Automatic annotation (TrEMBL):
This is Pentapeptide repeat-containing protein. InterPro entries: 5peptide_repeat, Pentapeptide-BTB/POZ_domain. The lineage of its organism: Bacteria, Bacillati, Actinomycetota, Actinomycetes, Micromonosporales. It comes from the Bacteria. Pfam families: Pentapeptide. It comes from Micromonospora rosaria.
Amino acid sequence: MRTSTIGDVTILLPDLDPADLDPTTDLNDDLSEALVEDASWRGAVFDEVRVRSSRIVGTDLSESTWEAGTLFGCEIVRTDFSGASLSGMTLERCAVTGSRFTGTRLTDFRLKDVLFEECRFDYAAFTRVAAAGAVGFVDCILTDATWSSCRLPKVVLRSCRLDRLEVESCQLLGADLRGNSLHDLKTTLGNLRGLTLSDDQLADLTRLTVEELGLTIREQ
């Protein structure tokens, strides 16, 4: 088992040795200790698939549909989920690196001990996504994405692009957003309750306050 510590949060991650995994090109059955490389399932439909202690690398899953199912103890690397619909799924103890979720719809999604690094979530829609444990986004792009009715307490974001990220009816109590620009964040102040911020983000917070309250600021 390996861990990654971001700020005050420690995330439990898989520690897989590719030499111990069995190569496969079939994701339609439950997988355990499998290695999937450079496969293509664009537009495929997966129903209650369970993947455990496996590594998925360079795979095309764009426009695919996932209903329920679980990924536990998995590493996902340079995989394309663009335009996919992921509903009712659970990701637990997973590391997702260099993968693309452009325009992906994540609905009724559960996250626990998940680290996203250098992933693209531009135009992605998070709806009722819940974190039941530590979750981190590092060097990720979330421009023009939406978070709606999400419960992401203690989620950590570092060095992420949040331009025009829209946050609506979310519970982010204890979330750590230090190290990100909030300048173009689209949200009301109620969604920011209980956040951890740094001094250099106070100007952005002030701008959000002025906009929400409709204040007019003039020289004395």
